[in-house]
Structures are given as structure tokens and as C-alpha cells.
Specification:
- By secondary structure, this protein is α+β, with helices and mostly antiparallel strands.
- It has five helices and 15 strands.
- The strands form four sheets. It has a five-stranded antiparallel beta sheet with strand order 8-7-9-14-15, sandwiched between helices.
- It starts with 7 loop residues before the first helix and ends with a helix.
- It binds magnesium ion.
- Magnesium ion binds next to loops.
Length: about 270
């Protein structure tokens, strides 16, 4: 396994890609309302990404037809945008990839469409928190197992299931680079994290059992038992100062520059 390390300049290029991606997530979050189709979200994403001089990295990847993956309710990942119409109470996972000048950023968010059930709200909160627990471990000297274990700890403490057959990955000029990043693991094991590595960390969690199945379209992955699923993802660089989130969808507009400055300046 060869984990490609990026120079500080290359990390900056990935951060530029990531800022477009974060803004795209914010645009879709505002648009995702009952009555809107996932095709409409896909069109809005593609329009915005191209307006920024970038391209949607998923479009055409292994033949994928959409610019985004839109996966409602018991669908975990890789949903093809189409005529599915959002309804109040849905949860919708949106996964977006942006390619800016050959540098790829990858990030996912699961949205609550209006008021959702208590279990859905807990699933989203837990999965999101597990991502940030994992990000906190992205430091030189830590090992990949520390990242994986952080996800597992949070998710299993809440009684939800880690999907073991789907993993995160390194990212850079290629969408999927080494290493694979499972959402379960043992602290202190696995590859050593070093400055310049860039990881797409993506907890994928079922409210019910951990099994998944592939739909006949050969893309959509569903929870086997039909339970709700959630997916959150950030692209994160290992820096001397610790984790640098390159896809800051969780920040309000305008906060991105402050975070970039903070990362660059050290603490
Ligand atoms: Mg990914």
C-alpha cells in the first residue's frame, strides 16, 4: 500500500476544490425541501460546480450518470438522481465530488427533510458526531486504526450498526487512493499518519443491522433490513497542526477563510 503525500501547495489546491464542494452542499441543503426531486438537486449541483470552473467528479465515474449521489432513507450510498420526490420526514444522503484542475474533493451529508422521527434524528446526529470524532484523530503520529476506532466507538455506543463492506479512502488526483479507511478498527494499529496525507473519512451507518444489498441498477446500496441509513464524509488533510478539513460544509458561509487561515497559521 502506497499512501500518496501531498505538498502544502497541493493541499491548497485540494482546499480550493473543497471550498466549491462545501458551498455546493450548502446550496443543496437550502434546496432540499418536500416536493423537490433528486434530479433537480443534481442539476443545481452540476450548474454550480461548472460555474466555478470545476467539474462534478462523480459524473461518468465508472459510468455513473449523475453529478451527485442522492440516497434517501434506507438507501445508504450511490443513489442515482432521478424522479424521487422528497417528502417530509425523509432523510437524504447527498454525496458530492468536485474536480478542480485535477484535484478531487469528496464529501457527504445526510439531511433531515422537515421533521423526522426520533430514531432518524438520533441516527443523523450519531453518524455526524462519529465523523468529527474521527477527524479529531487525523494527526501525525496517530495511526489509521485510531481514526477507524473513533467512528466505531461512537456508533456502537448509540446502538447503531457500522456497515463493514463500505469504506473511506485516500483522495487526491484520483478519487480513490490508498489507504482504505474502514469505519471500525483497533486503536494504535494500521498505517502511521504523516503530514500531507489526505483522507476521505466517511462513516456509513444503519439504524438496524449492518448488512447491505446492491439494487438491480448495480449502483444503489440499501440496508438489507430496510432500516434507515446515514452517511457523512469530509476530505481531511494531515497537517503538522492536526486535522485540516478541506470540505467545510459544516461551517456557515464566510467561515471557510477563517478556518483556512487558522490551519495555515498553526496554534
Ligand atoms: Mg468517498
Amino acid at each position: 500500500m502506497a499512501i500518496i503525500r501531498k505538498s502544502p501547495e497541493e493541499v491548497e489546491q485540494m482546499a480550493a476544490s473543497g471550498r466549491i464542494l462545501a458551498r455546493c452542499h450548502q446550496i443543496l441543503r437550502a434546496k432540499a425541501r418536500p416536493g423537490v426531486t433528486t434530479a433537480e438537486l443534481d442539476e443545481a449541483a452540476e450548474r454550480y460546480i461548472r460555474s466555478q470552473g470545476a467539474t462534478p467528479a462523480f459524473k461518468g465515474y465508472n459510468g455513473f450518470p449523475g453529478s451527485i449521489c442522492a440516497s434517501p432513507n434506507s438507501m445508504v450510498v450511490h443513489g442515482i438522481p432521478g424522479d424521487y420526490t422528497l417528502a417530509r420526514g425523509d432523510v437524504l444522503a447527498l454525496d458530492i465530488g468536485v474536480d478542480l484542475d485535477g484535484w478531487i474533493a469528496d464529501a457527504a451529508v445526510t439531511l433531515a427533510i422537515g421533521q423526522v422521527s426520533e430514531i432518524a434524528a438520533a441516527l443523523l446526529e450519531t453518524t455526524r458526531a462519529s465523523l468529527f470524532d474521527a477527524v479529531e484523530q487525523v494527526r501525525p503520529g496517530n495511526r489509521l486504526g485510531d481514526v477507524s476506532a473513533a467512528v466505531q466507538r461512537r456508533v456502537e455506543a448509540a446502538g447503531f450498526s457500522i456497515i463493514r463492506s463500505l469504506v473511506g479512502h485516500g483522495v487526491g488526483r484520483a478519487m480513490h487512493e490508498d489507504p482504505q479507511i474502514p469505519n471500525y478498527g483497533t486503536p494504535g494499529t494500521g498505517p502511521l499518519l504523516e503530514e500531507g496525507m489526505v483522507l476521505a473519512i466517511e462513516p456509513m451507518v444503519n439504524a438496524g443491522g449492518p448488512e447491505v444489498r446492491l439494487a438491480p441498477d448495480n449502483w444503489s446500496v440499501y440496508s438489507e433490513d430496510g432500516s434507515l441509513a446515514a452517511h457523512f464524509e469530509h476530505t481531511v488533510a494531515v497537517t503538522a497542526d492536526g486535522p485540516r478539513i478541506l470540505t467545510p460544509w459544516h461551517l456557515e458561509d464566510g467561515a471557510e477563510a477563517a478556518v483556512a487561515a487558522q490551519s495555515a497559521g498553526g496554534r
